[in-house]
Amino acid sequence: MSMEFPKRELETLWAPWRVEYFQEKPNSEFLAEAARASDDANHFVIARRKTAFLMMNRYPYAVGHLMAVPYRKTADLESLGENETIDLWNLVVHAQKLLRLTVKAQGFNVGLNLGECAGAGVVDHLHFHIVPRWSGDTNFMPIIAGARTISEGLRGLYEKLIDAQRTIETQDWEKK
To answer: What is the side-by-side strand order in the sheet with 66-70?
Structure first.
């Protein structure tokens, strides 16, 4: 009996809904395009502030993976103005509130990948990643199958996030 891992049998995972990712040509300008767009739903933009915006990641690490992005295209944190820094950080906090409400996040990974060697997929337009986490969410799939499972489609989750956005805005308005 061979002790070799049956890799070939475990690599096929059927996820036909992900075909939308493969039909798209990689677009390194998607952040700048979302910054200028007026059709937020088409770009999965959740919230806008004066100098930055919050959007869903089309290629999420986990369900609800969001990004806080400055409108101005820059790769360097040092080049951000005070208002941009404040707007970005406030969007990170807002994203956590949204994700607690919509996907019941119990924790978060928040960070930046600055530079190609640090893993930046878009090297010239910095953005914060806000990734929701749950107790026990690191399961066997990445270890055994080399795959992550994303349990909800982007469009459905976008609608839930927009509903939560409206709820939060209404609550904030009522507090005033």
So the answer is: 45-48, 52-56, 66-70, 128-133, 107-111
User: pLDDT of 53-67, one tens digit each?
Assistant: 999 998 888 889 999
**What letter represents residue 149's amino acid?**
T
Q: Are 132 and 110 in contact (CB under 8 A)?
A: no
Q: How many C-beta neighbours within 10 Å does residue 131 have?
A: 21
Q: Which residues contact 146 (CB under 8 A, 6 or more apart)?
A: 10, 11
**Catalytic choice (43, 94, 127, 129):** 127
Confidence (pTM) = 0.76
Task: Judge whether 127 counts as a catalytic residue.
Answer: yes
Query: What DSSP designation does 80 have?
Result: -
Dig out the tokens for 143 from the structure: 């270890």
DSSP string, 26-62: P-TTHHHHHHH-S-HHHHTEEEE-SSEEEEE-SS-SS
pLDDT at 58: 86
Closest CA to 52 of 95, 83, 19, 15: 83
Task: Kindly report, residue by residue over 93-132, the tens digit of the pLDDT.
Answer: 999 999 999 999 999 999 999 988 888 888 899 999 999 9
Output the furthest CA–CA distance in the chain (Å, rounded): 71
